[in-house]
């Protein structure tokens, strides 16, 4: 009969060995008279094999669960797309998708402004300001608007088929229409002498010389802009520099309520939300000024090459010195602001090329980019010392 003590000792030894190799395994006490190193290795391999099989089963089960979840998700999405009664909702919110924010559009005119339009072409912009005006301009008197064209009246009607009808309507309403007006010699025009305007506007100026060389074309248009700014400076209204600010929500203490009421009387631009007939929403920025300010020049260009190469802001703020002694130096302007020019806001407005509708159909501008307006006023001039 084998020694029981010996067998029990060998069993404990085997148990301790297996525990060190597999700490999570179930304790086993061996009481066998035949314990060999070969069987110990077989047990280790069996336990490892069992653990491998368990891990494999867990992976298969997990993969099956993931596949089932994806299948259910696809069924739900297909059901939502096929049902027209269910509107799109935000993920996890259960609420309808919010409408896009309104487009912000600046209207740089007040109904009390005197407005001079330069290079009107077919005069559709003047018509848009009076016949179907944007918000804030419903009370603009027709007599406050003077619209000019570079061409003689007969030439204008030949270039633009709709110009004659538009001009007749504007004159019937009481607006002043002038032909043969050179934008670089405004102060020399007989019917403009001695008068001043709050807004002098030139939308999409162009020399129209048909120069194919880009550098020469840019130079000719820069000279045109400089000549216009030099001339316009002599017919702008006088007064303090305009200030354009947007209203801001501000948390005020009880002690500051009186001060805030006084500050609210300062000139600000008030947003006005309007929905068009096409369903578009615009947030118009309508100027509100308490005091009369100095006149401003507004120039609108397509914000793409080659127009960006004209470098309009620099020409106005830091004009180059004249190359000839007979040309006076240009006055310096301050850039007050720039903003996107939305043609759709001015109903009935149709941009026309300098050469008219005879050239290239409707005469649209370059592709890409945006229309942008830059607004300037004259810089303060220091008084000469005695």
Structural description of this entry:
With 386 residues, the protein is α/β, with parallel strands linked by helices. Helix content is 31%, strand content 15%. The chain has helices at residues 4-21, 37-82, 124-130, 153-159, 163-173, 214-232, 257-263, 312-317, and strands at 103-106, 115-118, 145-148, 176-178, 199-203, 268-275, 281-288, 296-302, 333-340, 371-378. The chain has a seven-stranded mixed beta sheet with strand order 4-3-2-5-8-10-9. A three-stranded mixed beta sheet has the order 1-7-6, with no helix packed on it. Helix 3 (124-130) runs parallel beside helix 5 (163-173).
* Unreliable stretches covering 5 or more consecutive residues: 4-37, 78-85, 254-268, 357-365, 382-386
Shape summary: elongated
- For the residues shown, what is the average pLDDT? 75
Helices, by number, come to 8
Helix vs. strand class = alpha/beta
Q: Kindly state the percentage of residues in helix.
A: 25-40%
| SSE topology string | HHEEHEHHEEHHEEEHEE
Span from first to last CA? 136 Å
């Amino acid at each position: 009969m084998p020694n029981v003590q010996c067998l029990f000792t060998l069993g404990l030894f085997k148990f301790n060995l297996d525990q060190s190799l597999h700490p999570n395994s179930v304790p086993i006490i061996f009481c066998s008279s035949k314990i060999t190193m070969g069987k110990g290795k077989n047990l280790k391999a069996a336990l490892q094999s069992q653990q491998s099989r368990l891990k494999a089963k867990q992976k298969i089960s997990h993969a099956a669960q993931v596949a089932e979840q994806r299948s259910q998700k696809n069924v739900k999405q297909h059901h939502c797309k096929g049902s027209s009664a269910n509107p799109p909702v935000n993920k996890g919110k259960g609420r309808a998708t919010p409408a896009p924010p309104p487009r912000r559009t600046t209207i740089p005119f007040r109904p009390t402004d005197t407005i001079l339009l330069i290079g009107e072409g077919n005069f559709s912009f003047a018509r848009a300001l009076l016949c179907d005006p944007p918000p804030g301009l419903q009370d603009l008197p027709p007599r406050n608007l003077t619209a000019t064209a570079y061409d003689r009246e007969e030439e204008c009607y030949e270039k633009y088929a709709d110009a004659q009808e538009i001009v007749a309507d504007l004159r019937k309403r009481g607006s002043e229409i002038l032909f043969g007006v050179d934008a670089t010699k405004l102060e020399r025009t007989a019917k403009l002498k001695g008068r001043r305007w709050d807004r002098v506007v030139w939308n999409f100026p162009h020399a129209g010389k048909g120069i194919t060389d880009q550098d020469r074309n840019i130079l000719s248009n820069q000279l045109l802009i400089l000549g216009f700014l030099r001339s316009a400076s002599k017919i702008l209204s006088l007064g303090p520099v305009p200030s354009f600010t947007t209203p801001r929500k501000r948390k005020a203490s009880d002690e500051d309520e009186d001060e805030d009421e006084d500050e609210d009387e300062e000139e600000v631009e008030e947003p006005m939300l309007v929905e068009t007939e096409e369903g578009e929403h615009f947030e118009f920025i309508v100027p509100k000024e308490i005091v009369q300010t100095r006149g401003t020049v507004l120039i609108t260009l397509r914000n793409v090459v080659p127009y960006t190469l004209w470098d309009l802001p620099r020409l106005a703020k830091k004009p180059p010195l004249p190359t000839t002694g007979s040309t006076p130096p240009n006055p310096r302007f301050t850039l007050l602001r720039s903003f996107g020019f939305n043609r759709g806001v001015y109903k009935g407005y149709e941009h026309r090329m300098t050469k008219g509708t005879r050239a290239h159909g409707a005469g649209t501008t370059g592709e890409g980019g945006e229309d942008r307006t830059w607004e300037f006023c004259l810089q303060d001039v220091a008084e000469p010392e005695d």
